[in-house]
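Hi L., both proteins are below.
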Amino acid sequence: MMKFNEKMLDLYLVAGTQNVHGDCDLFLKQIEIACQTGISAFQYREKGNGSLAGAAKVSMGRKVRDLVKKYQIPFIVDDDFQLAKTLEADGIHVGQSDITVEKISANADNMFIGLSISNEKELAESQRLSRVSYLGVGPIFPTRSKNDANPPIGIDRLAKIGQSSALPIVAIGGISTQNAKQVRQTAVAGVAIISAIMQSSNMEQTIKSLKGELL
């Protein structure tokens, strides 16, 4: 199990089979391309319309875990703590309405924990949680990847949150090759991306372009 390192946040891919309209073979192919091209972490987020459930979700999780582990990339599970334990994930990422960090902490063993926040109040609360390793902040820009996404906070507010946070931040929400450099110039450790990579007609080129913008 990998220990948390801030470099994991550089170019953090978040995805599930719903992001490729349920095509499981394509999903695995795309994740392997992403691993080969240089993502720094992968979060298995099987959630929303068309996502897998039950045994199928677990089975796909095992395949993805084994794939990303082959490339020595940290494997993180979104929200589902039992699934994270079953898959022996390196980390778990939770939102404000998911299972609380306090409930996870006692049973998380060596798993690191990421927490989503979108405002200064949630930031202040997060700083008191000793088991949180990093914060996911956003959405920065409008996004269609999450049906329940909060309103975008924008670059200026991201910068203010980043300057006030004692924890490393990964920015998420509407980030693309066009705006990644602008985001990276704030006090963030990296960016988390769904659509810009998963919906790209040339994933390799998109990831290479993003890496170039983030350096």
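That was the first. Here is the second:
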Amino acid sequence: MHTAAHFYATHRGRVAARLLGQRMTAFWPEGTQGRTLGLGYALPFLPLWEREDAPCFSARLDTHVTRAAPPWQGRDCMASGLQLPFDDLKFDRILLIHALEVSEDKNSLLRQVWKILRDDGRLLLVVPNRAGLWAHADNSPFGQGTPFSRRQISRWLADACFRAERHEDALYIPPAGPCPTAPVGMVEWTGRNLFPRLGGVCLIEAVKDIYAGVPSRPAVVVPGGLRLGAARIFSRSLTRRPPPTDAQNT
């Protein structure tokens, strides 16, 4: 089985969760305040930020990879990426993992995330790296769906009015074969320093690009006798551009 729940119940899955959690807390320290949502399949990571006065929430996407899950504190639900069941501007931080790569409509999912994230909120996106080994081994959820390059994911984010601010790679341990017996932290450190672009997954922190749809040129004053066509400069959400394809070169 290649579901996220099954993977994280294995020894390799627990090791991967620990390594990813360490990188995530480098972006968002433990105990960071605010309302946090884990979208896709984030159950192994939400305890990093769980607090009594700021509980975390989980929304698993309705896909074959993320559908199954153990019970989790009554704050977990199943959701469609086309319509998330949350109010606009509800969350301070959103962790998106095991989501974008298995989504059939990636742009709609990112636009839904944009709506429910506060204007000063932050998105942490975790996707399989097409240059790494994990994207090419189908024994984990990172080997399902569409892997990305840094350039591709930045383009997807920009089309959804997000701005990527920080990139890191993680998961340098092998996705198959015997799990390393040496301290895996040393394996990760070596990989980040020697092969910084070849990690199994990419972690990207992004913020809302609120002014993405604002025209940069000043308005032109036109004599009253002239007739102009309707303006089409206001928002990317109103101008449908072809989304980036998975076949684009890095």
